[in-house]
Protein backbone atom coordinates (compact mmCIF):
# COMPACT_ATOMS: atom_id res chain seq x y z
CA UNK A 1 0.00 0.00 0.00
CA UNK A 2 1.29 3.46 -0.85
CA UNK A 3 1.51 5.76 2.16
CA UNK A 4 1.59 9.52 2.39
CA UNK A 5 4.98 11.02 3.19
CA UNK A 6 5.12 12.97 6.48
CA UNK A 7 3.99 16.60 6.45
CA UNK A 8 2.81 19.34 8.79
CA UNK A 9 -0.84 20.35 8.31
CA UNK A 10 -2.00 23.93 8.72
CA UNK A 11 -5.72 24.79 8.76
CA UNK A 12 -6.30 28.50 8.17
CA UNK A 13 -9.83 29.77 8.82
CA UNK A 14 -9.65 32.76 6.49
CA UNK A 15 -8.19 33.57 3.11
CA UNK A 16 -5.90 36.20 4.66
CA UNK A 17 -4.56 33.66 7.12
CA UNK A 18 -3.90 31.23 4.28
CA UNK A 19 -2.11 33.92 2.25
CA UNK A 20 0.22 34.69 5.15
CA UNK A 21 0.92 31.02 5.85
CA UNK A 22 1.77 30.45 2.20
CA UNK A 23 4.05 33.49 2.09
CA UNK A 24 5.78 32.41 5.30
CA UNK A 25 6.27 28.74 4.43
CA UNK A 26 7.38 29.47 0.85
CA UNK A 27 8.49 26.54 -1.31
CA UNK A 28 8.09 24.08 1.57
CA UNK A 29 4.31 24.38 1.38
CA UNK A 30 1.52 23.31 -0.94
CA UNK A 31 -2.18 24.11 -0.83
CA UNK A 32 -4.70 21.30 -0.59
CA UNK A 33 -8.44 21.52 -1.20
CA UNK A 34 -10.25 18.17 -1.67
CA UNK A 35 -6.92 16.33 -1.92
CA UNK A 36 -8.28 13.97 -4.58
CA UNK A 37 -5.45 14.82 -6.96
CA UNK A 38 -2.71 15.93 -4.59
CA UNK A 39 -2.82 13.02 -2.13
CA UNK A 40 -2.38 10.29 -4.79
CA UNK A 41 0.47 12.35 -6.26
CA UNK A 42 2.08 12.63 -2.83
CA UNK A 43 1.71 8.90 -2.28
CA UNK A 44 3.64 8.41 -5.52
CA UNK A 45 6.23 10.92 -4.25
CA UNK A 46 5.56 13.25 -7.20
CA UNK A 47 5.32 15.91 -4.50
CA UNK A 48 6.71 15.77 -1.00
CA UNK A 49 5.75 19.12 0.57
CA UNK A 50 6.86 19.56 4.18
CA UNK A 51 3.74 21.61 4.87
CA UNK A 52 0.18 21.33 3.61
CA UNK A 53 -2.12 24.32 3.92
CA UNK A 54 -5.67 23.00 3.93
CA UNK A 55 -8.34 25.27 2.44
CA UNK A 56 -11.39 23.34 3.65
CA UNK A 57 -12.19 25.50 6.67
CA UNK A 58 -12.30 28.74 4.68
CA UNK A 59 -15.98 29.59 4.28
CA UNK A 60 -15.31 32.36 1.76
CA UNK A 61 -14.10 29.76 -0.73
CA UNK A 62 -17.32 27.77 -0.59
CA UNK A 63 -20.02 30.09 -1.85
CA UNK A 64 -21.90 30.24 -5.14
CA UNK A 65 -23.54 33.60 -5.78
CA UNK A 66 -24.83 35.73 -8.63
CA UNK A 67 -27.60 35.83 -11.18
CA UNK A 68 -28.26 35.24 -14.84
CA UNK A 69 -27.97 38.96 -15.58
CA UNK A 70 -24.86 39.63 -13.49
CA UNK A 71 -23.01 36.37 -13.91
CA UNK A 72 -21.99 33.97 -11.15
CA UNK A 73 -19.09 33.80 -8.71
CA UNK A 74 -17.92 30.38 -7.66
CA UNK A 75 -15.61 30.05 -4.68
CA UNK A 76 -12.58 27.94 -5.53
CA UNK A 77 -13.53 25.51 -2.75
CA UNK A 78 -16.97 24.73 -4.18
CA UNK A 79 -17.24 21.01 -4.88
CA UNK A 80 -17.88 19.54 -8.31
CA UNK A 81 -21.09 17.99 -6.95
CA UNK A 82 -22.39 21.41 -5.89
CA UNK A 83 -21.73 22.76 -9.39
CA UNK A 84 -23.24 19.72 -11.10
CA UNK A 85 -26.41 19.95 -9.00
CA UNK A 86 -26.86 23.72 -8.81
CA UNK A 87 -30.19 24.49 -10.58
CA UNK A 88 -29.14 27.88 -12.04
CA UNK A 89 -25.81 26.52 -13.27
CA UNK A 90 -27.54 23.48 -14.76
CA UNK A 91 -29.98 25.71 -16.60
CA UNK A 92 -27.80 28.59 -17.73
CA UNK A 93 -24.26 27.16 -17.74
CA UNK A 94 -25.14 23.65 -18.82
CA UNK A 95 -21.75 22.85 -20.33
CA UNK A 96 -20.17 23.64 -16.98
CA UNK A 97 -22.63 21.59 -14.94
CA UNK A 98 -22.36 18.67 -17.39
CA UNK A 99 -18.58 18.77 -17.31
CA UNK A 100 -18.49 18.88 -13.52
CA UNK A 101 -20.90 15.96 -13.41
CA UNK A 102 -18.69 13.88 -15.71
CA UNK A 103 -15.54 14.11 -13.59
CA UNK A 104 -14.69 10.74 -12.11
CA UNK A 105 -17.12 9.26 -9.54
CA UNK A 106 -19.69 10.67 -7.08
CA UNK A 107 -17.32 10.21 -4.12
CA UNK A 108 -14.60 12.14 -5.88
CA UNK A 109 -16.97 14.89 -6.99
CA UNK A 110 -18.17 15.27 -3.41
CA UNK A 111 -14.61 15.98 -2.26
CA UNK A 112 -12.98 17.48 -5.36
CA UNK A 113 -13.24 21.23 -5.80
CA UNK A 114 -13.40 23.49 -8.79
CA UNK A 115 -10.16 25.23 -7.76
CA UNK A 116 -8.33 21.91 -7.53
CA UNK A 117 -9.76 20.84 -10.87
CA UNK A 118 -8.43 23.97 -12.55
CA UNK A 119 -5.00 23.57 -11.01
CA UNK A 120 -4.44 19.85 -10.83
CA UNK A 121 -1.04 18.52 -11.74
CA UNK A 122 -0.88 17.70 -15.44
CA UNK A 123 2.20 15.53 -15.40
CA UNK A 124 0.25 12.37 -14.73
CA UNK A 125 1.02 9.08 -16.49
CA UNK A 126 -2.39 9.08 -18.04
CA UNK A 127 -3.82 12.26 -19.42
CA UNK A 128 -4.62 14.37 -16.43
CA UNK A 129 -6.61 16.83 -18.47
CA UNK A 130 -9.50 18.46 -16.71
CA UNK A 131 -12.96 19.08 -17.90
CA UNK A 132 -14.71 22.20 -19.05
CA UNK A 133 -12.70 24.12 -16.52
CA UNK A 134 -9.56 23.70 -18.50
CA UNK A 135 -11.21 24.76 -21.73
CA UNK A 136 -13.73 27.35 -20.71
CA UNK A 137 -15.89 28.59 -23.50
CA UNK A 138 -17.85 31.15 -21.56
CA UNK A 139 -15.22 33.83 -21.10
CA UNK A 140 -14.74 33.29 -17.38
CA UNK A 141 -12.09 34.96 -15.22
CA UNK A 142 -10.28 33.86 -12.09
CA UNK A 143 -9.25 35.83 -9.02
CA UNK A 144 -5.79 35.14 -7.58
CA UNK A 145 -4.90 36.49 -4.15
CA UNK A 146 -1.68 36.73 -2.15
CA UNK A 147 -0.06 38.92 0.51
CA UNK A 148 1.11 41.09 -2.40
CA UNK A 149 -2.46 41.88 -3.46
CA UNK A 150 -4.89 40.37 -5.92
CA UNK A 151 -5.46 40.16 -9.65
CA UNK A 152 -8.23 38.98 -11.94
CA UNK A 153 -7.24 37.34 -15.23
CA UNK A 154 -9.15 35.56 -18.02
CA UNK A 155 -9.13 31.87 -17.22
CA UNK A 156 -7.28 31.09 -20.47
CA UNK A 157 -4.35 33.12 -19.16
CA UNK A 158 -4.04 30.77 -16.22
CA UNK A 159 -2.54 28.15 -18.55
CA UNK A 160 0.59 28.09 -20.66
CA UNK A 161 2.07 25.71 -23.19
CA UNK A 162 4.71 24.26 -20.87
CA UNK A 163 4.17 20.83 -19.36
CA UNK A 164 6.76 21.44 -16.62
CA UNK A 165 5.25 24.75 -15.58
CA UNK A 166 1.68 24.75 -16.88
CA UNK A 167 0.20 27.60 -14.80
CA UNK A 168 0.84 31.32 -14.70
CA UNK A 169 -0.24 31.41 -11.04
CA UNK A 170 2.65 32.52 -8.81
CA UNK A 171 3.71 30.16 -6.03
CA UNK A 172 2.38 32.47 -3.32
CA UNK A 173 -1.02 32.98 -4.98
CA UNK A 174 -4.26 31.28 -4.02
CA UNK A 175 -7.11 30.88 -6.50
CA UNK A 176 -10.03 32.38 -4.63
CA UNK A 177 -12.90 32.47 -7.11
CA UNK A 178 -14.05 31.88 -10.64
CA UNK A 179 -16.13 34.65 -12.17
CA UNK A 180 -18.63 33.55 -14.80
CA UNK A 181 -19.90 36.23 -17.19
CA UNK A 182 -23.63 36.89 -17.55
CA UNK A 183 -25.27 34.00 -19.35
CA UNK A 184 -28.29 35.86 -20.66
CA UNK A 185 -29.01 34.67 -24.20
CA UNK A 186 -26.25 32.04 -24.16
CA UNK A 187 -26.66 28.29 -24.22
CA UNK A 188 -23.86 25.79 -23.94
CA UNK A 189 -23.14 22.13 -24.48
CA UNK A 190 -20.26 19.93 -23.36
CA UNK A 191 -19.42 16.53 -24.84
CA UNK A 192 -16.73 14.26 -23.49
CA UNK A 193 -15.12 11.29 -25.20
CA UNK A 194 -13.64 8.72 -22.83
CA UNK A 195 -12.98 5.02 -23.00
CA UNK A 196 -15.05 4.08 -19.96
CA UNK A 197 -18.44 5.74 -19.77
CA UNK A 198 -18.69 5.20 -16.02
CA UNK A 199 -15.68 7.31 -15.13
CA UNK A 200 -12.58 8.32 -16.98
CA UNK A 201 -10.47 11.27 -17.98
CA UNK A 202 -11.42 12.82 -21.34
CA UNK A 203 -9.65 11.84 -24.52
CA UNK A 204 -11.47 14.70 -26.14
CA UNK A 205 -13.68 17.42 -24.68
CA UNK A 206 -15.80 19.73 -26.81
CA UNK A 207 -17.55 22.77 -25.35
CA UNK A 208 -19.75 24.97 -27.54
CA UNK A 209 -21.56 28.10 -26.39
CA UNK A 210 -23.91 29.99 -28.70
CA UNK A 211 -26.01 33.10 -28.37
CA UNK A 212 -28.86 33.40 -30.85
CA UNK A 213 -31.38 36.07 -31.79
CA UNK A 214 -35.12 35.36 -31.75
CA UNK A 215 -35.05 34.36 -35.45
CA UNK A 216 -32.26 31.84 -34.82
CA UNK A 217 -29.40 33.97 -36.16
CA UNK A 218 -26.18 33.30 -34.25
CA UNK A 219 -24.95 36.47 -32.53
CA UNK A 220 -22.19 34.98 -30.42
CA UNK A 221 -20.22 31.72 -30.65
CA UNK A 222 -17.37 30.02 -28.82
CA UNK A 223 -15.95 26.58 -29.50
CA UNK A 224 -13.27 25.16 -27.23
CA UNK A 225 -11.46 21.84 -27.41
CA UNK A 226 -9.85 20.07 -24.51
CA UNK A 227 -7.48 17.10 -24.24
CA UNK A 228 -6.25 17.45 -27.84
CA UNK A 229 -3.34 19.81 -27.21
CA UNK A 230 -1.02 20.67 -24.35
CA UNK A 231 -3.61 23.14 -23.13
CA UNK A 232 -7.22 24.06 -23.98
CA UNK A 233 -7.62 25.55 -27.45
CA UNK A 234 -10.30 27.88 -28.69
CA UNK A 235 -11.42 27.55 -32.32
CA UNK A 236 -12.06 31.25 -32.94
CA UNK A 237 -11.84 31.08 -36.73
CA UNK A 238 -14.45 28.34 -36.89
CA UNK A 239 -16.71 30.08 -34.37
CA UNK A 240 -16.62 33.25 -36.50
CA UNK A 241 -18.16 31.32 -39.42
CA UNK A 242 -21.34 30.98 -37.36
CA UNK A 243 -21.89 34.67 -36.72
CA UNK A 244 -24.82 36.17 -38.59
CA UNK A 245 -25.90 32.72 -39.82
CA UNK A 246 -28.66 30.33 -38.90
CA UNK A 247 -27.24 27.00 -37.92
CA UNK A 248 -27.92 24.17 -40.38
CA UNK A 249 -26.51 20.65 -40.66
CA UNK A 250 -24.30 21.75 -43.56
CA UNK A 251 -22.96 24.76 -41.71
CA UNK A 252 -22.36 22.62 -38.62
CA UNK A 253 -20.27 20.18 -40.70
CA UNK A 254 -18.22 22.98 -42.26
CA UNK A 255 -17.59 24.65 -38.91
CA UNK A 256 -16.68 21.32 -37.31
CA UNK A 257 -14.10 20.60 -40.02
CA UNK A 258 -12.47 24.01 -39.56
CA UNK A 259 -12.55 23.80 -35.75
CA UNK A 260 -11.03 20.32 -35.77
CA UNK A 261 -7.85 21.71 -37.36
CA UNK A 262 -7.02 23.12 -33.93
CA UNK A 263 -6.73 19.59 -32.55
CA UNK A 264 -3.10 18.48 -32.19
CA UNK A 265 -3.37 15.55 -29.76
CA UNK A 266 -0.27 14.60 -27.81
CA UNK A 267 0.83 11.00 -27.52
CA UNK A 268 0.11 10.85 -23.79
CA UNK A 269 -3.42 9.54 -23.63
CA UNK A 270 -5.51 6.52 -24.24
CA UNK A 271 -6.26 5.63 -27.91
CA UNK A 272 -4.18 6.65 -30.92
CA UNK A 273 -3.51 10.18 -32.10
CA UNK A 274 -5.00 9.31 -35.47
CA UNK A 275 -8.26 8.09 -33.95
CA UNK A 276 -8.54 11.15 -31.73
CA UNK A 277 -7.98 13.45 -34.72
CA UNK A 278 -10.62 11.66 -36.77
CA UNK A 279 -13.24 11.73 -34.06
CA UNK A 280 -12.75 15.42 -33.22
CA UNK A 281 -14.87 16.91 -36.07
CA UNK A 282 -17.58 14.34 -35.38
CA UNK A 283 -17.84 15.41 -31.74
CA UNK A 284 -17.81 19.10 -32.65
CA UNK A 285 -20.60 18.55 -35.14
CA UNK A 286 -22.60 16.60 -32.58
CA UNK A 287 -22.21 19.44 -30.11
CA UNK A 288 -23.39 21.94 -32.75
CA UNK A 289 -26.31 19.68 -33.66
CA UNK A 290 -27.77 20.36 -30.21
CA UNK A 291 -28.47 23.94 -31.29
CA UNK A 292 -30.21 23.16 -34.59
CA UNK A 293 -33.88 23.95 -34.40
CA UNK A 294 -36.19 21.66 -36.33
C1 LIG B 1 -9.71 8.23 -9.82
C2 LIG B 1 -9.67 9.67 -10.26
C3 LIG B 1 -10.36 10.05 -11.39
C4 LIG B 1 -10.35 11.40 -11.79
N1 LIG B 1 -11.06 11.73 -12.90
C5 LIG B 1 -11.04 13.00 -13.35
C6 LIG B 1 -11.76 13.38 -14.52
O1 LIG B 1 -12.43 12.57 -15.15
N2 LIG B 1 -11.68 14.67 -14.94
C7 LIG B 1 -10.98 15.60 -14.23
O2 LIG B 1 -10.97 16.76 -14.61
N3 LIG B 1 -10.28 15.27 -13.12
C8 LIG B 1 -10.30 14.03 -12.66
N4 LIG B 1 -9.59 13.68 -11.53
C9 LIG B 1 -8.71 14.74 -10.93
C10 LIG B 1 -9.16 15.47 -9.68
O3 LIG B 1 -9.48 14.64 -8.63
C11 LIG B 1 -10.31 16.46 -9.85
O4 LIG B 1 -10.03 17.23 -10.98
C12 LIG B 1 -10.60 17.35 -8.61
O5 LIG B 1 -11.50 18.40 -9.00
C13 LIG B 1 -9.39 18.02 -7.99
O6 LIG B 1 -9.85 18.89 -6.93
P1 LIG B 1 -9.29 18.79 -5.45
O7 LIG B 1 -10.02 19.83 -4.66
O8 LIG B 1 -9.36 17.40 -4.91
O9 LIG B 1 -7.77 19.21 -5.69
P2 LIG B 1 -6.51 18.95 -4.76
O10 LIG B 1 -6.05 17.54 -4.96
O11 LIG B 1 -6.75 19.39 -3.37
O12 LIG B 1 -5.48 19.97 -5.44
C14 LIG B 1 -5.03 19.80 -6.78
C15 LIG B 1 -3.95 20.88 -7.05
O13 LIG B 1 -4.56 22.17 -7.04
C16 LIG B 1 -3.94 23.01 -6.07
N5 LIG B 1 -5.03 23.81 -5.48
C17 LIG B 1 -6.22 23.37 -5.03
N6 LIG B 1 -7.01 24.40 -4.67
C18 LIG B 1 -6.29 25.52 -4.90
C19 LIG B 1 -6.56 26.93 -4.74
N7 LIG B 1 -7.74 27.38 -4.27
N8 LIG B 1 -5.61 27.80 -5.07
C20 LIG B 1 -4.41 27.38 -5.56
N9 LIG B 1 -4.10 26.08 -5.74
C21 LIG B 1 -5.03 25.17 -5.42
C22 LIG B 1 -3.26 22.08 -5.08
O14 LIG B 1 -2.14 22.71 -4.46
C23 LIG B 1 -2.86 20.93 -6.00
O15 LIG B 1 -1.65 21.24 -6.65
C24 LIG B 1 -9.60 12.38 -11.07
C25 LIG B 1 -8.90 11.97 -9.94
C26 LIG B 1 -8.92 10.65 -9.52
C27 LIG B 1 -8.15 10.26 -8.29
What do these coordinates show?
The chain has 10 helices and 12 strands. The model is unreliable at 124-131 (pLDDT under 50). The chain has helices at residues 15-25, 38-43, 80-85, 87-92, 94-101, 106-111, 114-118, 236-240, 249-260, 273-289; strands at residues 8-10, 29-32, 51-54, 64-67, 71-75, 141-146, 149-154, 174-180, 186-193, 204-212, 218-226, 233-234. With 294 residues, it is of the alpha+beta class. Bound molecules: flavin-adenine dinucleotide. Flavin-adenine dinucleotide binds at residues 30-38, 40, 55, 76, 80, 103-104, 108, 111-113, 115-117, 119-121, 130-131, 174-175, 201.
Helix/strand layout:
Layout: E1 8-10, H1 15-25, E2 29-32, H2 38-43, E3 51-54, E4 64-67, E5 71-75, H3 80-85, H4 87-92, H5 94-101, H6 106-111, H7 114-118, E6 141-146, E7 149-154, E8 174-180, E9 186-193, E10 204-212, E11 218-226, E12 233-234, H8 236-240, H9 249-260, H10 273-289
Parallel strand pairs: 1-3, 2-3
Antiparallel strand pairs: 4-5, 5-8, 6-7, 6-8, 9-10, 10-11, 11-12
Bound molecules: flavin-adenine dinucleotide.
Residues 30-38, 40, 55, 76, 80, 103-104, 108, 111-113, 115-117, 119-121, 130-131, 174-175, 201 line the site of flavin-adenine dinucleotide (FAD).
